[in-house]
Every structure is written in C-alpha cells, then in structure tokens.
Amino acid sequence: MPILAVSGLTVRYNGHAALDNVTFDLQVGEQVAVVGPNGAGKSTLLKAIAGVLKPVAGAVTVYGHSPGGHICIAYVPQRTAVDWRFPVTVHDVVLMGRIGKLGLFRHPGKRDLAYVRECLDVVGLADLANRQIGELSGGQQQRMFIARALAQEAELMLMDEPLTGLDVPSQEGLFQLLHDLRARHVTIMLSTHDLDQAVQYFDRVMLLNRRLLGFGKATEVFTPEQLMAAYGGHLHLVPLNGGLVAVGDTCCEGEHRHD
Ligand code: ADP
Fold this sequence. Notes:
CATH superfamily of the largest domain: P-loop containing nucleotide triphosphate hydrolases
Strand order of the largest sheet: 5-6-7-3-8-9
Number of domains: 2
Bound molecules: adenosine-5'-diphosphate
CATH class of the largest domain: Alpha Beta
C-alpha cells in the first residue's frame, strides 16, 4: 500500500485553481522533490496533503485514511512563515512534536524527554537545546523542525522550500541529514527551486504547474518539452544526457540547450 495517495486534488483560492486534478502515489521511504515556477502550487500541494487546506475536489489519503491531524505527517513550513521571536527554546519546539503521542493534558515523562534528546542528537542540535529559536541559523532552524518531526514519529515529512536562503554548507548538512533519514524509512516530499539538487538527491521528481506535468525519474521528467511546459520562459540548468538544459527564470532568456 502506498503511504500517500492523492487523487484528483483540486484547490482553489477565490475561485482560481491553484491545483487542478493532481493525482499521484508515494511509496514508503522514497524522497521526492517537487519543482515548478513561483505560484505553481507547490506550497498549496504540501498544505493540502498536511490537511491544513481543504480541497474543493479530490482526496488525500495516508495509509487509506484522511490526513486531518494525522500524526504520522509532519509539515515543515517555509522559514518566513514562522515568527522566530516567539519565546520558546529549541527543546520546547521539539517537545511539542510529542504532543500527538502524549495527548494535550498529559505531562511528558522521562521517556518523552529522553526521546526528545535523542531527536536533537540526530540532527546535531543537542548543544543548542536551550537557545531561543530566533538565535539559530537558517540551517539549524530546518534541523529543529526535522527533530520535531522525528519526535512526532512522523512517517511522512512535507518540507516547504527548506533550502531557500541556506548557505552551501547548511544545504549540504541538510542533504546529509535527509540521507540519514533513509535508514528510518521516513518518506519525504520537499519543494525546491533548485532543479540540479532535485536531480542529484531525490528518488523521483515532480514537475508541477497547477497541473501535474511529470512525476518520475528526473531523466524522464526533466525533458526540454516538459520543462518548457512548466516554466515557459523561466530559468534553471539541468544536467540531462550528459548535456545541460537551460530554462530561463526571468523574462527574456528563452530556452538554450548546450550539448
Ligand atoms: P508555490 O509554492 O509553487 O510558489 P503557491 O502554492 O504558494 O505556489 O501558490 C499557488 C497559487 O495560489 C499562486 O497563484 C498564489 O498566488 C495563490 N495563492 C497561494 N496562497 C493563497 C492565498 N492564501 N490566497 C489567495 N491566493 C493564494
């Protein structure tokens, strides 16, 4: 059974479709990158799967059940969507991940606290547990959310552009951590603007622009035709068959192919 089944998913804002009839499955443990231009509906897709947004049509099921409040899903928002001045520590945020397991009115026990420490260790934040969340770097903030997802014992992790704004070492650290999560069979769906990283680090890629334009191995999905269908005149460089396909991100680049 797939961990996630999305069928005919359609989401509208004020009557405008942000997602139109999107259908796909995810298998347990796979890591998938969702790519597409700004406004393609990547965030909307992750939020609809997390149960934060209600679709006007279609269904999302996790192991055959609807996702609302399902604790095996962890949603990691874009960093800009978080108020980092909030007076909580890294430890507090990760402990919040245990609430689904605890119930609202039970205090965390020794085992929960030990589990939180272990999760902080896994992501390399044990030493920063007592910092206020705004004192972390961008990469550490992403790690904190991953620790919270681990504390939640999430089986499906949805991450909205976690790489945006991170420097190269932090990005590499995050990819190493995602690699380590493979041993835990955590299924990961992550949106990104970087097609090159999508090709390099993920089992499958999803090309989205309101509709699902492709989903599969990067070599099959990132064809010049499909990239043009998704991006029109916008840009990224994608290694393909030993050559590079360039698709412009700003207005005037057009398409160039360098073999
Ligand atoms: P992406 O993550 O790929 O940049 P989004 O899912 O954020 O795309 O947005 C998809 C479309 O839905 C865009 O046209 C965006 O302007 C619109 N949209 C997103 N959120 C809202 C909202 N809360 N209200 C109205 N329109 C929205």
